[in-house]
Amino acid sequence: MAQYYQPPVDIPIQLSGTFAELRGTHFHAGIDIRTQSKEGLPLRAVADGYVSRIKIQQGGYGKALYINHTNGTTSVYAHLQRYSDKIVPFVRKKQYANKSYHVHFYPEPTEIAVKKGEIIGFSGNTGSSYGPHLHFELRNSANQIPFNPILGGIDVKDTRRPIIREVFAYPINGVINQSEEKIQLNITQKNDSLFVTNPVVAHGKISFGIQHFDRQDNSYNKNGTFEISANLNGKQRFLARFDTLSFDDTKHMHKLVDYKHYVDTKKKVMRLFNPFEVAVPFVEFFENGLIDIHEGIRYTYNVTLRDAAGNSTHLIIPIIGKKEEVWVQKKQPNKGKMIQTDRDYLFEFDAAEIYFNANTFSESTPIDISMDKDTLCIENPYAYFNKPYKLTVKKTDTLKGEYLALKQANRWGFVTKRNAKGNFTAKLKNIGRIAVLQDTIAPTIIDQKNISNRWISLEKDIRFSVKDLETGIDRYEGYLNDNWILFEYEHKKGELTFRFKDPIKLSQVKHKLKLIIWDKAGNNTTFETTFYRKE
What is the chain's mean pLDDT, rounded? Predict the structure, then answer.
């Protein structure tokens, strides 16, 4: 199998992200391949097959391509700058038929065949990408479940061991070093493969968590580790092996991470125990990963981290079973109404309703809800939502440009416009201060190439800078000589581009261009001009 796939890039593979590593809200479904901080590097089909799916969206994977292979797998290439010349006509045909830049379709198996090593596109930075790279996946075609591309034979040079940065001890129903609250342990690196903490004095039920990373050769990115296991005196307590991962598993990511610690520090500490009723399905917990420490007994807790290349690192935590006086007592939970996991809740105010479905949260969670004049306040910075809650805000008077907004980190963000009934309804996974605001300022359009009343026969494209100061760009339409044309919107640059090589035939010399931009509150700006071009 190792020889079935070839690399998707011509340069040596360096990773900026590994399979199933912990991201802010999900497990990473593939590997991120660095592209030398550049766009436009050729991308190649890793094996013979056919293009089975094409999707273009503003966020997510941006421009993405899916290829089915003869061995029953699918390769995925995301954040592309553009597709190959062979594939572009199929994309353009669909975009012009739908009159939309965003498309999602499944070509027939006989439409776009590709050979191993054939250029299928070029690397980019489209979608929810924070720098040029290739997001690459291998999936089982039958169920579209991703598996680790490194195990599939994509070769990445790696002789470096995983690194342990921080170790935390958790008193679940016990005491550690005279504390009922989580504490950080001092660690010492004994050699390149062994870390040891200071002895822990504890009694009752406890467990541990680690902040760690792995690096491959020639890469400085701090990536995730392939396998983590833990045992107590040789008896296994925890095993996580990231060889495959269902997209349904993403909703469990917060259970493996100390989410409160992540909110406070932006550091991801993997908890080696399960405090929830429903555990992370692909992780093996033995007795929920908990350790029962008894008076007068010594224990040794061992953690092993291993990357996909087989490099390993070990952590030893000596434990002394002893009862001590408690100096740091357990903190009280956040204020607010305790939302149980097995019940529905409806909160009603004069102008607002909030509905929490059962299992909105993975554990009982306090939520503080109040009204401050015209602002609804929903607060608990550590709440993690399995499912969205439903919010309805009623407002009798209607003003132009009104929208529902959510304030987080001292910044208001657009949520939704008024619906047909005159109310504002939304399903949210975020909380904060919520109010109805007004946006009356239309977007701005700047012609980058000053095409008005000019001859532009030598130009390859037309570009506009577009910007909206409050709610953001919602949609746009472009027309050339009264016919719809395709503008590509790059939201990171605030740029709209029309390329003349698109399937538009210019039979005349004088051309009329019209561009309309709407913001999310419904304000719009129209740019109209005339230019000259002969083809």
Answer: 93
